[in-house]
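Contributing: when you submit paired examples, paste them exactly as shown. First protein:
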Amino acid sequence: MGTFIDGRTSQNASTANSISIPITVLNTPQLFGQIGLNTMGITGTPRVLLKGTLSVQLPLALVGITISIVRGTLPTDPLVYSATSTFGLSILAPQVIAFSADDFNPPITPQLVYTAFVSSNLLGTIRVGPESFDGILVGD
């Protein structure tokens, strides 16, 4: 790995069952984390390493939860990562979803902003915590 430039964390909820935020609109991204990385001093090829966790309580039905990360602040900004996890009918306990993503050679601006969203294809999904989103910027 190259030279570490900057790192940030967005910690929306630190512990299990510390929040109760329902996802009220189907298949619509809901923000759960956002970070800005300072690019001053970056040399060589920049890479952004992103990771996080999100916990949801699911309805007793087949449900798909999608995590998406964009470079920017809006769901329509350039997509860096997207994954959908599908959960079955018999899951009663909150589900922890962990993710890891990379943005290789992003365009360098004074600050790179990354935003993490969650969406559900079924009403009754509730964000319960913990929720964390963090990233680091490194260069060659």
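Second protein:
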Amino acid sequence: MSTRAVYRHIVHTIRHAPEGGITYEAFCVTGGCGAESGPHAEQEAAQDWALRHTGRTGHDLFRRVFTDHAKVTRAE
């Protein structure tokens, strides 16, 4: 007796899920500083943190991270 498998390919889409929101963060990457803004719901809060950090330390290079949530749904 042999086992059989049937595969069916189904098209899916992936889109931003507004109910999940977006998180904004800034990380100082100047000279291995490692300071970070922490997650914020507003982009301006992360940017303000970076501006204040530059004012205090003179550090001027940051990595910005924008995180969103995505939902996958069947296209059928």
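If you have annotations for the second protein, write them as plain sentences, like these:
Strands lie at 12-16, 22-28, 62-68, 70-74.
The chain has one helix and four strands.
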